[in-house]
Amino acid sequence: MFHVHSTEFPQPEHPPVREAPEKVQAFVSRHRSFFILLGVMVAQLLLLSAQITRNQKVRLIQVWAVAVLDPCERAFHGLVDGTTGAVRTYRDLWQAQQENRELEIQLVAARSEIQQLTEQAAETQRLRRLLEFKQRLPFPTLAAEVIAASPGDASKAIYIDKGTDAGLTPDLAVITPTGIVGKTIAVFPHSAQVLLITDFSSGAAAALEKSRVQGIVKGAALNACQLNYVMNEAPVEPGERVLTSGLDQIYPKGLPVGEVTEIREGNIYKTIKVKPAAALERLESVLVVLKPRSSEMQALNAPSRP
Description:
CATH architecture of the domain at 142-290: Beta Barrel
Strand order of the largest sheet: 1-2-5-4-3-12
Number of helices: 4
Low-confidence stretches: 1-7, 294-306
Helix content: 25-40%
CATH superfamily of the domain at 142-290: Rod shape-determining protein MreC, domain 1
Strand content: 15-25%
Mean pLDDT: 81
Order of helices and strands: HHHEEEEEEEEEEEEH
Distance between the termini: 170 Å
CATH topology of the domain at 142-290: Thrombin, subunit H
Number of strands: 12
Radius of gyration: 53 Å
Shape: rod-shaped
Structural class: alpha+beta
């Protein structure tokens, strides 16, 4: 038997595959007359369009050229205009952002300046009230600024910027236009420690404004005071003012201590809670009551002439 693919019988050879340029060349050769005719017709059409004119003496070829190129030109101009607009918009946005940053900086500076002016105005008004109060007092005082506060809750004290160099000594009353603050307990060359009336170890002789019942004001919890040694029979009203009595020889008589907020009866004495008149938690400027010299004391104690 013989195999189909045996070498004894030669296989027919396939015709060679023509490459693309050869195919194109062969196609053009076969249709050469058609392409020549087409070229002649296009040339004649272009010549006719160049000679024929329409309205306003515009050549037809120009009309066709405009019809072909106008969309491209419009698209190109639209692209250019869009790019120019985008660049202009980006530039305007960048400039606006820079202006906004400058305005924000100016606004922060203006707010800071307003805050400083407000603080200066408040300080000026506070010092004016302090000076007016100082001028009305019948005893000598010395203005001082609060420079520190005691950090602990057990001891309520502040520090002022006046000391022995300004003539301060221990046991001097410290007051404000709204009420008493406390007394000096330690005096240093350039500063002094003041024990507040809300401290448990403090004490001030006081009296009720209406009934004139006397007692001792001591420090209590929650930054309050308590008026002690007032009998249960003594009339006391909520909201009644408590004034210094002057019997302790530290606080001058008649200065505000606070007002009554709570009244409870005990076995013998009432328990009277008092809210301090002075804002002890935000003290800035105070007056220290100086002890009068002997000549001034004699003048104060001398009987007035009719």
